[in-house]
Amino acid sequence: MSNQDLERGAAKNPPNSNPTGNYSAPPYHVETSEKQWTPWLVPMFVVANIAMFIVVMYVNNCPKTNLGFEDKCVAGFLGRFSFQPLKENPLLGPSSNTLVKLGALKWDKVVHEHQGWRLLSCILLHAGIIHLLSNMLSLVVIGIRLEQQFGFVCIGIIYLVAGVGGSVMSSLFIQNSISVGASGALFGLLGAMLSELLTNWTIYTNKAAALFTLIVIVAINLAVGILPHVDNFAHIGGFLTGFLLGFVLLIRPQFKWIERHHLPPSAQRVPKYKIYQYILWIVAAILLVAGFTVGLVMLFRGENGNKHCSWCHYLSCVPTSRWDCGN
C-alpha cells in the first residue's frame, strides 16, 4: 500500500502532520434566540465509521492473507483483526486490496466498470486506526456544534454531498491510486462554517476574530495537504462543495426578525433575510449545480483534469529534495 494508496489526509504523513487533526471550532457567539438541536447524527456517523473499520479489519484477516511474506502482521494477538505490516501500511490498517474490495475510490472502477457508488462508499473507509481516530476527533469537534445549531438534516446533507464532491474532484485529478477517508466530508463542514459566518455576518459578535481563526485553520489544513500521499484534491473539492452548500442551507434569519414579537408594531415589519443573503443563496446554488454537472460529466467521460490544468497537480503535492511526487 505504501506506493499505491492515497489516503485522504492521513497516508504516510510525518508525525503530528495529519491535516484533519488541526480542525477546531472558533469561539462564535451568536446573537439569536433560536433553539439548540440535540445532536445525534454526528455521533451516528462516528459509530458507523468505527463499525465499518472493524468490518474491514475482519475481512482483511492479515494472518491468513499475509502468509508467505517476510514481514509479520502488527499486533498479532488480535488474530484476524491484526494490522498489515508497517512497511505496507504505516497507519495500522488493512491492505489496499481489502479497501478496494469494500469500496475504496478507484478511478478505473468508477469510469470503466460503472461503479459510481464508490464516490460515496469511500467516505466510510479509512486506511488505518490512526487515520480513523484523527478524522473522528475532527468530526466530533466540527460536527457537534453545527448540528446543535442547524439540525441533522442540513449537516447530514452537507457531510454527504461534500464527501461526494471531494471524491469527484479527486477522481478527476488522481487516477492511478486509491483513496479513502472522510476528510473531504470534514473539509465540507469546515467550508460550511466559513460560508455560514459570511452569510450570517450581522448576527455574530467578534466577527473579525472568528473569520481570521477560520481562515487560518483552512489555510493550515490545505497547506499540509501538499505533502505526498495526501489527497488534497478531495480536501479542496469537499471544501468548495461545503462552502457553497453553507450559503444555501445554513442561512439564518436576521436577529430583529426573530425578536419581532417583542418590538413595537411599527418595527415588526422586518424582512426575514437581508438582500445580500438572497444573492449569495442564488449564486451559490447555481455554482453548486454547475460544478457538479461539469465534474460528473468529465468524470464519466474518462477525462483527466490535469490535461485541462497543467499546474493543478501542485495543489496536492509539491516536489522537494526529500520526496518525489511522481513516486
Automatic annotation (TrEMBL):
Keywords: Hydrolase, Membrane, Protease, Serine protease, Transmembrane, Transmembrane helix
Compositional bias per record (Basic and acidic residues), positions renumbered to this chain: 1-10
EC nos: 3.4.21.105
Single GO molecular function: serine-type endopeptidase activity
Reaction(s) this enzyme catalyzes, per UniProt: Cleaves type-1 transmembrane domains using a catalytic dyad composed of serine and histidine that are contributed by different transmembrane domains
Pfam family for this entry, one: Rhomboid
Polar residues bias: start-end ranges: 14-23
Keyword Protease attached: yes
Gene designation: LOC111491076
Taxonomic placement: Eukaryota, Viridiplantae, Streptophyta, Embryophyta, Tracheophyta
InterPro entries with a match to the protein in the record: Peptidase_S54_rhomboid-like (IPR002610), Peptidase_S54_rhomboid_dom (IPR022764), Rhomboid-like_sf (IPR035952)
Stretch list, region Disordered: 1-27
Protein topology in the membrane: Multi-pass membrane protein
Family according to the record: Belongs to the peptidase S54 family.
Protein name listed in UniProt: RHOMBOID-like protein
Transmembrane residue ranges: 40-59, 117-143, 150-174, 180-201, 208-227, 233-251, 278-300
Gene3D superfamilies named among the record's database cross-references: Rhomboid-like
Coiled coil: none
Functional note: Serine protease involved in intramembrane proteolysis.
